[in-house]
Amino acid sequence: MTAQLCANAPAGPLASRWQRRRADLELVGPTRRRRHHLLVVGAGLAGASAAASLSEFGYRVRCLAFHDSPRRAHSVAAQGGINAAKNYQNDGDSIERLFHDTLKGGDFRARESNVYRLAELSVRIIDHAVAQGVPFAREYGGHLANRSFGGALVSRTFYARGLTGQQLLLGAYQALAKEESAGGVTMLARREMLDLLVVDGRARGVIARDLVSGALEAHVADAVVLATGGYANVYFLSTNAKASNATAIWRAYRRGAAFANPGFVQFHPTCLPAAGTHQAKLTLMSESLRNDGRVWVPLRAGDDRSPEDIPESERDYFLERRYPSYGNLVPRDVASRAVKAVCDNGRGIGPGARSVYLDLADAVQRLGADALRERYGNLFEMYEHLTGDDPLRVAMRIAPAAHYTMGGLWVDYDLMSTIPGLFVIGEANFSDQGANRLGASALMQGLADGYFILPATLGGYLAGERLVPIGEDGAEAVAAVAEVRARLEKLLASKGRRTATDFHRALGRVLGDACGIERSHVGLTRAINEVAALREAFWEDVTVPGGDRELNQELERAGRVADFLELGELMCRDALAREESCGCHFRVEHQTEDGEARRDDGRFAHVAAWTPGAPGRGPEPLIEPLAFETMPPSERSYR
Amino acid sequence: MKIALRIWRQRDPYDTGRFVRYDLDQMRPETTLLEALDVLNEGLVARGEPPVAFDSDCREGICGACGLVVDGRPHGPVPGATTCLVTLRAFGDGGTITLEPFRTGAFPIVRDLVVDRRALDRVVQAGGYVSVRTGSAPEANTIPVERDTADRALDAAACIGCGACVAACPNGSAALFVGAKLTHLGLLPQGQPERARRARALVAAADREGFGSCTLHGECEAACPKRIDVSVIARMNREYLSAAFATWWS
Fold it and tell me: Do the interacting molecules here have an ipTM over 0.90?
């Protein structure tokens, strides 16, 4: 029988669990807090908010980021908004409804206790962000405005034009700056974590590379927090920033932190289609555009007239047709699959016929171009810069792209991984989004974790531990540094013929075909072998110029691709083992007659948290069963 | 299309640096300038040569990591676009494009086109925030904010911290950056209690970091990819003067 994992959530009524946990957590006294050194890796929404809040408590925090400044973290690119159950619209919203929508949006593959806590804390995030000076959109009366997002029938999304992520990140960045100036946080920029330091079974630090000098540094601490984001860049082309990578969480996995649901990846339906072989990444167009835009394709396959020449009667508004109650605002997994279906049907448009139209013509008539520019101005500008078209005149062309990873390191209710002392927050953990994340929920989760949950639970861990002091020159640290150095030297020594980017592109093609919007037993089985072969070829034939004692961006890239080549295989193994369809994980063998996902709650109402397994045996999953006490899983219908 | 890239190569801060010319063939007009650099770099790496170091991340014009001087202009020829959003459409077939790092005293060159912009972070650390402790905020709708005020605050808060304003300024001044932060927080009710202290602290920090003084050339506004205008500098001067007078009189 497979070993089981326990989330360690409090019992009792859902609505009071977080309150109860907070009351039960032991506290660390103020003088003792000053003696605790903590490490936060990553300074995006989750990392910056956590580092700042921990410093406010009095802990000594060291924060690492691979960018030149924490303000560059990819949270900055989130466009559309952040959900909160404020019910300012008086349209029937409540904590219960946000909980319900998020759990259903995740297709009942998330932990009830966590999702409820997230909904509960959502309202405090808005309060805090407003107090920090985040300039959210306002009504004429001066009160906060909302818009709608996919998967909800209420309007609960707070926003700042298409810059919501940037503005919330700047709030957290400024909080971090405040704590840096107060002396509680030491920010180390241009540092990349390359290994986790585990001493006596506890996470006690990281090995990082100074990306400018190339020096390897051991940073020791009493606890380590990973806030290093998601791994959608494993597909090569994704909406993630170029440098976003999985190395920190993958190194932690290799040191014993279980990796939960690696196969759960969200494809965002509204991205700019790839424009040729030189394409380096894909660009997101906010889901909020589906508030006012209508998605369609020509009724007839091969219809190559320009969109304005195709009359209404010869268009198929396929989301409105298939999902009359949610229409264009169905969740992302449903929308992406529908887009893929019409394209597979030969009715896609644009080069390669893999795109569909997102058309604002009706909204221009209804609201006027100025009102739309006010809502989405920066998005239109970006679209026009990249494509040369003005979306207010010509229907936009959009296509799905890898965007967000619901999978990540397994954490318990206190956000601690299977390695004591290693906490994981934001997109880097797996916890709250289930098998599909609803729009405007990532900012919510990153900030709930960083501002409110982690600073409380981390104290509970420290209060209960008697940690012996360790030094940066201790035996474990020295050994870990040597291992990292050997790996870097191995990358530099392999003077092959192919670039790391070339391998990355090949990996992306394999995963996109086999472990993308649709998966099958045959495809995944083949992909596992193909990824393994690629990995072998990589270590024989990669070429990395330069040395390790200098700024060497190609060495950074090669290390990240090497880890993606391992992670890609685990994703396929997870997707293969989950013999059901749920949320974004769509196995063609498991679908309804209408082509919708068919869950198997009897066999798969669980989290699969993978461990490297015994030598020679390969990865093995630990199972966390999911119990639904408050809300029994129902068929997830948006029709 | 064919293009030639004339790129500043500098091994480290101590190297004198030089321009090196590279030719690229079979490029497409919709390819971005940074994708052209990616293509060049992949070719260099495959030949075992060190690629051109440059910063870039989101490729959507929001992270502020990229910032090259393109044909003498920070972020290049397209108004309102960061370097990453400039496509080859903006250049003629067969033309030469010159790429340099941001050149200003407060941003030391790290390698090739990469510069160190941490000075901007240190300016923010001096007081570019609202001192509010996590968990202590009142209900968000307690203080209404005029819609127009929130909009203008957001116009200023949209600054991406790329440093193009500094690179464009003949004096190497960060006045547009500082003015944008003072405007953002100075307009909102939440920023009022620390307003005078913030104005004094940010201006002093910018001086300390070696940024020059503003003499109203207006080059910063022309270079700003987020179209932040020089009215934020007027506001900075006003805030700084009234803060200074307040100290003097008290």
Answer: yes
